[in-house]
Automatic annotation (TrEMBL):
Location of the protein in the cell: Cell membrane
Membrane topology summary: Multi-pass membrane protein
InterPro entries: EmrB-like, MFS, MFS_dom, MFS_trans_sf, Sugar_transporter_CS
Name of this chain's protein: DHA2 family efflux MFS transporter permease subunit
Transmembrane segments: 28-51, 63-83, 95-114, 120-142, 154-176, 182-202, 214-233, 245-265, 285-309, 321-339, 346-368, 380-403, 424-445, 451-469
The keyword GTP-binding appears for this protein: no
Keywords tagged on the record: Cell membrane, Membrane, Transmembrane, Transmembrane helix, Transport
Superkingdom classification of source: Bacteria
A Pfam family the protein falls into: MFS_1
Domain Major facilitator superfamily (MFS) profile: start-end pairs: 29-473
UniProt organism field: Blastococcus goldschmidtiae
Bias kind Pro residues: ranges: 10-22
Span list, region Disordered: 1-22
Amino acid sequence: MSASTEQPSTPSPASPPSTPPPADRPGLVLLVVSAAVFLSALDLLIVNIAFPTLSAEFDASTVALSWVLNGYTIVFAALLAPAGRMADRIGRRRVFLTGLATFLAGSLGCALAWDVHSLVAFRVVQATGGAMVTATSLALLLAAFPPARRAQAIGVWSAVGGVAAALGPPIGGLLVEVSWRWIFLVNIPVGIAALVVGLRVLPESRDESETRRPDVVGTVLLVLAVGLLAYGLVAAPDRGWDSAVVLGAFTGAVVAGALVGLRAARAPRGTVPVLPLALFRVRSFTLASLSMAIFMAGFAGMLLGNVLWLTGGWGFTPTQAGFALIPGPALAALTAVPAGRLGARVGCGLVGATGMTLFALGTLFWFFQVGSDPAFVTDFLPGQILTGIGVGLTLTNLSAAASSSLPPPALATGTATFGAARQIGATLGVALLLASVAGAGGELVGAERGWLLIVCLAGAAAVVALAVGRGQHADLRVVPAPVPVPAPVSVPAPLPAPVDRAEHIR
């Protein structure tokens, strides 16, 4: 199953005081926004399928290449909320277009990369642009469409992630067969067209009451904390868990994480803390975010682990692996809307936990059934069916449980925080997978270790999800279908019913 780099959840909905009249050409606005989000989602999926090729091209270890994924997800997670706040203040159109141009510059740099280090550096540039695009995309749609047409627009916007999930593996496999550089170059013509049209049709909107600025120091500390933790996990198998470097990385992660919390509790006047502590007093939001982070660790580990197994264990070409990975994300997209309706009836937490259980059972099927001889239909496809349905049940309901826990004034911050938790979980999932398979005696043993890790993570996430309870649900006509990613969470429309003690969260 491949990453559906989910549309990361972020948007800052247009504020009533400054909401402009609908755009003259809302269809073109939808096209531009969807194209940009599609590129950011597609690129992450393609990078997964290109992992073995990149390893051979740069003669680099899988551990070193993990930063091609982790560098993107860490920076994306840390910049998601600050980008949204910056857009509220200086203009969402301006931030969106700047982000799209930045993403294209990063894509060109990745295509021209001369070693792993330069590739990781340009991926960070991509992540910066991707966070800016994602943080403003839904707000631009809300500003461009009249209320009566917003549900339809958000439905199209949401479906983009599912399309990227289904098309990512085969497109990536075909491009990699030509050259791995084309997985980044393919962004350029589409991105330039979106940029040119966007300059002409995107409406500007901002929150005139927002005068605060993002907390740069807190953002840097968050990147440092997650980065050091991920580095410690991937370096430990080679250097030793008790080595000075690994222990130093873990210690640094703890210290940086503590400083993030202190900084958030005492944010300087005029700044927005990178970690909105007040949100975590809302029980259902906290549990949904924690469950999503744990689940995404297992999900991201599965995405990378299955690519490594199909290309390494069974000897599939990138194209064969890409087409083999289509069923999972396709089923996730197909089950998303029915899963939302079911969650509205019996409870988001219960349905989400059921999805995680199916996900774990599908992975467990691979552990017991997959052998050294390729047998896709009998040994691999059934597990994909279970994991794909499980993802569809899980992402929609956890997203709804988190967002419905908050009142409208806190929705933008809450969805950005939820999206960051998702990306951080994905980062740690890649690191944990590589740590678990390191030193395995053969491809199959390594794959089995990874699958057992994923089962444990999915089981833990299911237990937490059960504690979420029923949750509340947005109007199902406007709940975006999940896009599993590193990219990129579904963002429901603002909900009117606040829960717990969130009335004064901003």
